[in-house]
Design goal:
The complex is a heterodimer. Chain A is of the alpha+beta class. Chain A is built from five helices and five strands, in the order βααββαααββ. Chain A has helices at about 25-40, 45-65, 110-120, 125-140, 150-160; strands spanning about 20-25, 80-90, 95-105, 165-170, 175-185. Chain A has a five-stranded antiparallel β-sheet with strand order 1-2-3-5-4, covered by helices on one side. In chain A, a hairpin with a 2-residue loop joins strand 2 and strand 3 (about 95-105). Chain B contains three helices and six strands; from the N terminus they run βββαβαβαβ. Chain B has helices at about 35-45, 70-85, 105-110, and strands at about 5, 15-20, 25-30, 55-65, 90-100, 120-125. In chain B, helix 1 (about 35-45) packs parallel to helix 2. Chain B is globular and about 45 Å long. The chains are: A alpha+beta, B alpha/beta. The interface between A and B is medium-sized, with 33 and 32 residues.
Chain lengths: ~190, ~130
């Protein structure tokens, strides 16, 4: 799998504290989340910051698990899974979380619009959008089309981000797949 | 309204709904693989059948140290059900208990109950 471009950058980001690359199933997700929780519990930081970092890690990993292009199941692996890279590290007093996964190229314009819109919003606008989305999502929980987080996932990530969200898309496969990379500093 | 209990797990909170005493308690963290599987039975137990008498009072105590966004959506739905019960005459008091040093949890409680005007919401900071 292609490495995350930002992990290859010099300047302290090259050695993440947590790193997963390859197949990602729900079991891998649970294990990763437990590792992140243990890692954060060992750090000295205010409870609210620990909450923000943990939440961002879970949301980003959850987004990958639910929205990445899925591999075709094999006889030996009857579940469908995604391939992804997820990392958590620190640099210059900030903690960052980064993900890379394959998305359908047709998703790229909408995804790019969403992330750019979130980057342009002030904290109070993000909270208002979150409340509005939550009120609407609450009405339709579980209905088809809402997505696992009803759109709240990216809003949650944007609210906890200390800097504008970094992202990139790169052509990845001949049939139109794109590598989506996302990096958030908390 | 029916009794409902689910034990705490690493991914889900303990839930106890006791119509006889008029109490609902949810304590723990919440980020299950499929929140619908977790919340669905609770919502079904909470909503009274048409022939059931409406309980006069329901005290809901929510102490959730972490909720992911997919579960937050279901939690809002649960609170919307409580709001509807309150609109029909049940006195519903929601106590949102949170770590006093964690403003993220405080804001989550405020956002979850935003514009649910029939609920009486108490914010209860807990000392670490």
């Amino acid at each position: 799998m292609t490495n995350l471009p930002h992990l290859a950058q010099p300047g302290g980001d090259a050695r993440p504290d947590l790193h997963h690359a390859g197949d990602l199933t729900w079991r891998d997700f649970s294990k990763l989340v437990d590792q992140a929780k243990a890692h954060l519990a060992a750090q000295t930081m205010p409870p609210a910051r620990r909450h923000r970092v943990f939440s961002t890690f879970v949301e980003m990993a959850y987004n990958v698990l639910h929205h990445a292009v899925r591999s075709e199941p094999k006889a030996s692996e009857p579940w469908r899974l995604v391939k992804a890279e997820i990392a958590l590290g620190h640099a210059g007093g900030a903690i960052w979380i980064a993900t890379t996964n394959l998305v359908d190229a047709r998703q790229v314009p909408a995804l790019e619009r969403s992330v750019r819109a979130l980057r342009a919003m002030a904290p109070e606008e993000l909270r208002a959008a979150y409340r509005e989305q939550l009120a609407r999502a609450g009405e339709r929980a579980g209905s088809a089309g809402a997505g696992p987080g009803g759109g709240l996932g990216l809003l949650t990530i944007a609210r906890d981000a200390a800097r504008p969200i970094e992202f990139s898309f790169a052509p990845a496969t001949a049939d139109g797949g794109a590598l989506f990379s996302l990096k958030v500093h908390v | 309204m029916r009794s409902h209990h689910s034990p705490r797990s690493s991914l889900t909170p303990e839930v106890t709904l006791d119509p006889a005493s008029g109490s609902l308690q949810i304590t723990g963290e919440c980020y299950p693989e499929d929140p619908g599987v977790f919340f669905g039975p609770l919502l079904a137990a909470l909503w009274p059948a048409p022939s059931d008498p409406r309980p006069p009072r329901l005290d809901a105590t929510l102490r959730l140290s972490y909720v992911n966004s997919a579960s937050t959506m279901w939690l809002r739905r649960l609170l919307s059900v409580l709001d509807a019960l309150a609109a029909e005459g049940t006195a519903v008091v929601v106590s949102w208990e949170y770590d006093a040093e964690d403003d993220v949890s405080l804001e989550l409680g405020q956002d979850l109950t935003y514009e649910l005007r029939n609920l009486l919401v108490n914010e209860r900071p807990l000392a670490a």
